[in-house]
Amino acid sequence: MTQSVVVQVGQCGNQIGCCFWDLALREHAAVNQKGIYDEAISSFFRNVDTRVVGDGGSISKGKIRSLKARAILIDMEEGVVNEILQGPLRDVFDTNQLITDISGSGNNWAVGHKVFGSLYQDQILEKLRKSAEQCDCLQCFFIIHSMGGGTGSGLGTFLLKMLEDEFPEVYRFVTSIYPSDEDDVITSPYNSILAMKELNEHADCVLPIDNQSLFDIISKIDLMVNSGKLGTTVKPKSLVTSSSGALKKCHKKPFDAMNNIVANLLLNLTSSARFEGSLNMDLSEISMNLVPFPQLHYLVASLTPLYTLADVSIPPRRLDQMFSDAFSKDHQLLRADPKHSLYLACALMVRGNVQISDLRRNIERLKPSLQFVSWNQEGWKTSLCSIPPVGHSHSLLALANNTCVKPTFMELKERYMRLYKKKAHLHHYLQVEGMEESCFTEAVSSLSALIQEYNQLDATKNMPVQDLPRLSIAV
Fold this sequence. Notes:
Helix Hairpins, 15 helices, 17% strand, globular, Epsilon_tubulin, GTP binding
């Protein structure tokens, strides 16, 4: 069994991480009722005897003593991390694996990347090595961060380069929260574009999620609750928007429900690594099968059921409807329409009591309405995990490598150009040591080249697919 380490950077990264660990503990508690430390739990948690000082306290099997998350928490402001350490999950995190400062990055990528990057490089490296040493077989680093601020975008992407240099064989999966148009950080287009260049060069897979999509999903849920269309009985242990459950603090702010949707995405993404299934998908298989070209590693995620994760008691979606939902605009965690764009590849990660025949039937049913690149017409990767999310009979996470990400990148570039043409706020960046105007021009060139790659793929849309002759085998 392999292990993964989660690195949560900045306010957004730590809040999403907090929700992820809470939900992961609930899932394992529902399955592992005897309290035995098994391989499933070891993939993301260590078992520690707190009575023993130092590394001697690690226990590889037997009864669960004290679970510690395989996590590193980094923020250049203390607020969120302190809140976590005073909350119900305080004992889950190893206090030796935290890095905080008091000044913050001031919504400036250059401060996060250039200033705090060099200042904390040795400390971060030491904690990464420590986490890696505590794993038997480290497979993946999950980085959670936002693109619009200073710490998440700047230090988060600095860390990515460090991981590539120090652990080149270990996969780097990045969950990146993109700012919405109405973002209150004026400099977010600069931060996002500068961070994008680093993601292009140093990540294995990026799951781009935009705040606006999450907000729209939560708004629809609220509308359905308030309209009474779907009933208004609150589920006592809802996993997305309820204020019930372990993390009471975690649901008071408007972003909490949005963060919980992202946490559920990560929960489903890692389900095959944590639980048994008739058709498991290794994390390495996601990268291998879904990323045909190095830079085209942006995967659009959709999660279903979404609304049944809410505070509304509604009957579970029919299985076939769940598959249809995964390809609809309303269920994408990025404002995108994959159905009317070009697929390079698609992964379907199913949880619960679902048969392989159900999977195949739905793929065959949906295939005619989806357009794949001519050279990868059978570009499907599937997995079945037998353990469903808590409180549900089944769920589906779809990951699409699809040209529908292009409009998000184009819109980001337009917002960036509006600021950059006026050289607005540029001096805040250029006064940081090591930051030059060439950093901006290189970053926007990198994004333009990425957009052009998607343009070239889109140009092949609707081209006839050649039915190549197959080798005949005599029986």
